[in-house]
Amino acid sequence: MAKLFDSIKIKDMELRNRVVMPPMCMYSSDDKGHVKKFHYIHYATRAMGGVGLIIVEATGVEKRGRITDKDLGIWDDSHIDGLTEIVNTCKEYGAKIGIQLGHAGRKCEIESERIIAPSPIAYNEKYQTPIEIDKNAIKGVINSFKKGAGRANEAGFDTIEIHAAHGYLINEFLSPLSNKREDEYGGTVENRVKFLREIVREVRKAWPENKPLIVRISAEDYVDEGNHPENLVEIINSVKDEGVDIINVSSGAVVPAKINVYPGYQVKFAEIIRENTGLPVIAGGLISTPELAEEIIGNERADLIFLGRELLRNPYWPLEAAHELHQDIDWPQQYERSKPR
Questions:
Q1: Are strands 53-60 and 19-21 parallel, antiparallel or unpaired?
Q2: What is the dihedral of CA 143, 145, 149, 152, to 10 degrees?
Q3: DSSP β-bridge partners for residue 159
Q4: Which H, E and C letters describe the chain, residue by residue?
Q5: 47-84 pLDDT, tens per residue?
Q6: How many Å apart are CA 68 and CA 108, to the nearest integer?
Q7: pLDDT tens digits, residue range 6-57?
C-alpha cells in the first residue's frame, strides 16, 4: 500500500491523500484583486486530478500587500463571492482547499504603491526602497491578516496558510538580513518573531479552532549571517502554542543568494523542523516522481508533499502516480473509462 495515498486528518480537515498543491501566483486577476474565470478552471482541474489539498495562491491582505497588480486579494468583502465559488467547486471534486494570506512588504512590484518593510532596505536595485513601517502601521497590517482570515472562513476554506517565507513582509521581520530595527520588533530572535506571533494570535480570533492553521517558512536564507533551520525551529517553537498546526517548509528569497537546487533539496529542512517542533510538515522542492514522493512519506521524513511545477505541467499527476505505485484510487466518474487497468 502506497503511503502517499493514505488519508490524514489534522483537526477537522481530513485529506484523501498526502499530495498538496502549494500556493503559486497565477498573475491572472485585475488591479482590484478579484477572481477570474481562469482561477475557477485552474483550481478545479487539480481537484479533479486527485490532489488532496489545494492552497490558493498568495492573496493580498492589503492592496499594497500584493506582489503584482495581477494578484488575488482578500482585503475587501467583495472578494468573498469569487473565492467561495473556487472553494465549492474544488470540494465537489473531493479536494480540501486552503488559501495563503500574504503581504509582499518590500517585494511588492507595483510602482504606484508606497511599499513597507521592517527596515528601509531595498531587496535589490530593481526594487523600490521601502518605508520603515511604524508601530501603528504594524497594528494595521496585523488587523488586515485577521480580517483576511475572517473572510477566508466566510468563503468556506478548510485551512489558511500565513505566508512567512520567500522574503515577503513577515519573513523580512524574521530574518536578520532584512530586519535592522532597534525596537521590540528587531534585534534578537525573540523580538524578530514578535510580528509573526501577533499575527497568529489575532488570526486565531477570526479563524475557528477546529480548522488547522498553516505557516509557510523559509527554513534557510543561504547566507551565513541569515536564518538557518535551527533558527526556524526556535521561531516555530515560540509561536506554535498560539495556534499553529502545520508548517509548510520552503527556503530562500529573503535576499538574492545562490541556491543549489535538485529534486528534494528542501526535504532535509522539513525533517529538522518536524523532528524538533513536533508539528506536521509539508515538504517539497522539485519533487516530480511518485517514487521520491513515496520515499519521503514512507520514511516519515514529512507528513505531506507539495508539488508545484509538476502540477502545473500535469494536473492529473495524482491519478498517474497512484497507477505507478500500484494503488487503486477513485477517478472522476467522467474519466473512469480511461483509468489504467
A1: parallel
A2: 120
A3: 98
A4: CCHHHCCEEECCEEECCCEEECCCCCCCCCCCCCCCHHHHHHHHHHHHCCCCEEEEEEEECCHHHCCCCCCCECCCHHHHHHHHHHHHHHHHCCCEEEEEEECCHHHCCCCCCCCEECCCCCCCCCCCCCEECCHHHHHHHHHHHHHHHHHHHHHCCCEEEEEECCCCHHHHHHCCCCCCCCCCCCCCHHHHCHHHHHHHHHHHHHCCCCCCEEEEEECCCCCCCCCCHHHHHHHHHHHHHHCCCEEEEECCCCCCCCCCCCCCCCHHHHHHHHHHHCCCEEEECCCCCHHHHHHHHHCCCCCEEECCHHHHHCCCHHHHHHHHCCCCCCCCHHHHHHCCC
A5: 999 999 999 999 999 999 999 999 999 999 999 999 99
A6: 6
A7: 999 999 999 999 999 999 999 999 999 999 999 999 999 999 999 999 999 9
Strands 96-102 and 281-284 turn out to be unpaired
Paired with 52 in beta bridges are none
The three cell numbers of residue 26 are 497565477
Q: In which residue are the cell numbers 485529506 written?
A: 15
Cell of 36: 477570474
For the 3-327 domain, the top CATH level (class) is alpha beta
Cα–Cα distance for residue pair 46/332, rounded to 1 Å:
12
- Work out the percent of the chain whose per-residue pLDDT is above 90: 99
CA distance 51 to 308: 12
